[in-house]
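ugh ok so i messed up the first submission bc i forgot one of the chains. this is the corrected input, ALL of the components this time, i swear. 609 residues overall. if the numbers dont match what u have on ur side tell me asap before i send this to the collaborators (the ones from the other lab, u know who)
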Amino acid sequence: MTDKPDDHMIVFEDVSKFYGEILGVNRVTLAIEPGITSLVGPNGSGKTTLMNLMTGLIRPTRGRVSVLGLRPDHPEVFFSKVGYCSQFDSFPSALTGFQFIYSYLRVHGRPKKEAQELAWKALHRVDLLEAAHRKIAAYSKGMRQRVRFAQAIAHEPAVMILDEPLNGLDPMARAETIRLFRQLAEEGLHLIISSHILHEVNDMSDTVILLNNGYVVAEGAIQGVRDEMEEHPMQILIRCDRPGLLAARVFEQDSVVEAKIHKDKHGLFVKTRDADAFYLLLNTIVVQDGLNVESVAPADDDLNAVYQYLIGGGEGA
Amino acid sequence: MAVHEHAYKPYAGPLTPVWSRFLIIPRHAYRDVFASKLYTALFALCFVCPLVMAILIYLHHNLTAMAALSISLKDIVPINGFFFQFFVGTQTFFAFVLTVLMGPPLISRDLANNALPLYLCRPFSRAEYVIGKMSVLLILISAITWIPGELLFLFQSYLEGAGWAASNLWIAGAVFVGSWTWILLLAMLSVTISAWVKWRLAASAALFGLFIISNAIGFMVNGVLQTRWGGLFNLTFIMKTIEDSLFRAPNSAGLPSWMVLPTSAAWIMLALFLAFCLFLLTRRVRAYEVVR
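and heres the new structure output, hopefully the right one now
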């Protein structure tokens, strides 16, 4: 049997979800490939609705959602492929970390021995082996976050939907968790992550989906999204010995809209509509005029800038 | 776009039967319940009545013991339908107490912790979740009602002989059906209230109050409208009518005949009440609350 292209992707086809008269998401069409995909947007933008649609917890009002070619109408197969880590403290009382994961594996239908092995494996992956037999009620916030993540990966799903998975983790645990995300993504898994921490999303994501008011405002690799935002010229900071000379030369290009010399007289801040052309020009100036360049750094090609241009507000989705 | 290895291999081993998975829920609930000495003591107390009744049945058939006590138990406590109806009545009272104590946190705790998505993002339906929660009470109340009731019936049949068993088989049926109507009502009421009332004490009070209020409404309607149909709002009365019919003891409470409800009306009312509970549950037990 040959695989269809949809069998490796999460597909939204013209999906809308309304809660009564309230809009959840509207006319969303997406094809999400394996890797880390981050959902970014302000509160109420539709991130959780999109995640709930992927996990089959809610059904679209219109359109079609399929996850690796599967639909939630076949829960036994569908849910074996999907792992969900909610952002809430959803812990049945009085359970230990091990019991928590073991119980949900049993709900998945895993036999006793298999469930025990997988529970230990998941706890090992999130570094909670020592606390496995302590009650979750006694866990710290970071440990709760990790055990929540462990239950999402325990049944070895192909798609993981992670709602704010980095919340409450200390810097070491964050780094370790991101490393684990990358490892899972490299194994060919889909990781769909919502996060408010833009610089971390920026660092770990292969793709971002920006949402606002229930609409997808942009999707793709961050760099690609930034390149397509022509109405916002790219900002580049060049640290060099003769910024005055550079400033005089850059206006040879029509695409350069602004050049500002840095206060310390050792840098130039350029706004251009065509970054590639600018870099070529910069090379020419370096060769022709012997300009001594210390560094060249794009100032606004990260997620934070993209977020601000498309959605507005400061860092924090 | 990153290049991925696609090393992921999904699980292809055997799975447990789908029907058995709801039993995961009661297992943890029981662990909680029996961790409390109070609940354990109360549960033990629920077996005092079956024990006393087993002793009575034994004494009935032990002439030496009867002679030593110088009493005629056969006249004082005959082993008949009324004996078993008394047993079911007593045990359902204990069942009610257990339900008031154990029922309220069943669903409310999950709702308060937003735990429903965790169950429902697995191959586990809302119906299975509710059945799992109800089974906490179904199993526990069964252990103190129809199971010891049927054991008492078997004990009596063993001592009295096959003839008694054959002619009184309807008692075994009445114990089973009578217990299950109470079990279903209590379990359904309990999980419904648990789904709507998050505060445990308020939920217990609501469960307790429902019987008192329905009783009061029933009597009020009867009194004001000079009718017997007010009894249809009285849960205790409905259950008593059903029980009386099952144990072939019409109007065992000795009410004026104009107040007695037709059995069919009591069954229909019970069915409607359970259906209403089910409707309320479907409105509440969902992964995410729909905002309107």
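quick check: The interface with chain A takes residues 1-2, 4-8, 10-11, 13-18, 21, 24, 28, 31-32, 35, 109-110, 113-115, 117-125, 287-288, 290-292 of chain B (CB under 8 Å). that seems consistent at least. Chain B has one domain: 26-284.
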